[in-house]
Amino acid sequence: MPRVNEKVSYWMLVLPALAIMVCFYILPVLGIWEIAFTEPETGVGNFVKMAGSNAVKTSFVITFRVAAITTVGCLILGYIVAYAISNFATRLTPLMVALVILPFWVSVLIRSFSWIVLLGRSGLVNDALMHAELIERPLRLMHNELGVLIAMIHVMLPFAVLPMLTNMRGISGVYVQAARSLGASEWTSFRQVYFPQTMPGVLSGALLVFVLSLGFFVTPALLGGGRVLMISEYITYQIQEFLNWGLGSALSVVLLVATALVLLIAARFVNLRATLLERK
């Protein structure tokens, strides 16, 4: 009888969340799939049109390239930050963690606009460089892939830092100390002992940043100025500007499938359960 009560309690806790998931996620996604195959006519015409469009192919290439470079940039910077917090900022750890989390309290839209203020032709960066007489004319730091990457790395950086920080804080310093006592140099101890133990956090951060970057919209739209057309922005144009719901939905389906494939490929080489849950 107690076990029955435990099951009832379990489902009473799970069912509300499951119902919300079905109503506000699963059903809308199925609706998008339906539109992709039925608008403007039933069939796979939208996918055929998409496959023959050079603009769509270019948009997908840009999307995956920006997501990949953003992931690499976030991993490099995030690893340094996480390592410093875990190993050198013992007394300042709460403050440093708070600073990492702080961007989550500010809207992505506001953070993206702040980069417009910094990187614009009359922005703070160009003004500072011109006043220092390092450049004669303003640099083009916006409405190109460089501006998008700078802002994307800034927005996505906390998503890379937190998994790596969680992983690093669970690593005992005894292993590195043992390696040093056996004659290993500081670099060798880091490379052969410490770094391999941080790989679950690195892979978790990489997967999280890459998947989020694939469907990111606000920052590329603002910093790209329509010249760095990632797939999410291309979908928006198809639906809002051209009212082409069929092609826009087909693009959404392909993006969803591509994201799922990324996760499946990652699962092929990495234990996602162990990577995402991290070590206790």
From TrEMBL:
Keywords: Cell membrane, Membrane, Transmembrane, Transmembrane helix, Transport. It is found in: Cell membrane. One of its GO terms (cellular component) is plasma membrane. The chain crosses the membrane at residues 12-33, 62-85, 97-118, 146-165, 201-223, 243-270. It is a multi-pass membrane protein. GO terms for biological process: transmembrane transport. Pfam families: BPD_transp_1. Residues 60-266 form the ABC transmembrane type-1 domain. Belongs to the binding-protein-dependent transport system permease family. CysTW subfamily. This is ABC transporter permease. It comes from Rhodalgimonas zhirmunskyi.
